[in-house]
Amino acid sequence: MEWSKIKNIILLILLGLNLILLIIVGDQQYQSDQVARNTRFQVLQTLSENGVSVSEEILPENTALPVLQVEGDATLTLNAQALLGPCTQNESSDARVVYTSARGTAELYSSGRFLLQANAGVYTAQSGQEAQAGQEALELMGLTVRILEQSEENGLVSVTYCQLWEGVPIFDALCAAVFEDGELLSLSGQRVSGTASTLEVWELTDVPTTLIRFLNWKNQERLVFSSITAMEAGYQSSSGRTALLTPVWCITTETGRYTVDPNGNVEALSLGV
């Protein structure tokens, strides 16, 4: 038999083997996806039977995030001058720095806490635009945030924000802006800043397992809520000049927000700043 014919037969055999392998891999992937879909469906049924409604559309895919160690800035720098103009450093220690100007005062703490109090007319917002204006003010000072909620009481508009680290939320790093008659009164909260290094990458517990753990915790604590409205991956932080950002799931219900770590520990989050 001619070599060219033998070569063609070998190529056809190899092509057939590759096709068979492709079919096998595709079938395994299909079976795996089917098991995952069935598992999610069963978990949603279990939640429903326990009085908790969840829309499958709000459930994320399983994910992994790096554990980050953030070395804080020893000078406790926050760009207060972006709002207050040229500042004078009045007090300084390893734990606290105070800046003042004709436009207000900024206090920075090594724990990550900060408080900026602005004088009248320093920073203003149009009616109904307070949330966006507060976000822009925080970003001027070097913090990337997203809006969580807004409330109004006795003429004061208060907006709560969550800090983002490279687009990923830090669920317990919360900031607040307070406005009165369109004028910014204060910015305050807990921030994480500095230089990050990756320690390791964590694969977060899969979504169905996390939901079942959360349901068990809810029943043990006898909490009352009827729906889960959001679920996403992000970070929980430790305070201090060196902060540790560890991956967690955040589950939002109509009555509160909760983090679930890879060990199944659940912690309620407060929106108070």
Helices and strands, in order, run as: HEEHEEEEHEEEEEHEEEE
Oligomer state of the chains in this structure: single chain
Terminal CA distance? 84 Å
Low-confidence stretches: none
Number of strands: 15
Helix content: 25-40%
What is the CA-atom radius of gyration, in angstroms? 26 Å
Biggest pleated-sheet summary: 8 strands, antiparallel
**What is the beta-strand fraction?**
35-45%
Class based on secondary structure composition and strand pairing: alpha+beta
Number of helices: 4
Task: Calculate the mean pLDDT score and round it.
Answer: 85
Strand order of the largest sheet: 3-4-5-6-10-9-8-7
Q: Which descriptor suits the 3D outline?
A: extended
Please provide a brief summary of the model.
With 273 residues, the protein is an alpha+beta fold. It has helices at residues 3-49, 81-84, 130-140, 207-221, and strands spanning 53-54, 64-71, 88-92, 96-101, 104-109, 113-118, 145-153, 156-165, 168-180, 183-190, 195-203, 227-237, 242-253, 257-260, 266-269.
In words, what does this structure look like?
The mean pLDDT is 85. The protein has 4 helices and 15 strands. The chain is 28% helix and 41% strand. It is extended, with a radius of gyration of 26 Å. It is an alpha+beta fold and 273 residues long. It has helices spanning 3-49, 81-84, 130-140, 207-221; strands spanning 53-54, 64-71, 88-92, 96-101, 104-109, 113-118, 145-153, 156-165, 168-180, 183-190, 195-203, 227-237, 242-253, 257-260, 266-269. The strands form 2 sheets. Strands 3-4-5-6-10-9-8-7 form an 8-stranded antiparallel sheet, with helices on one face.
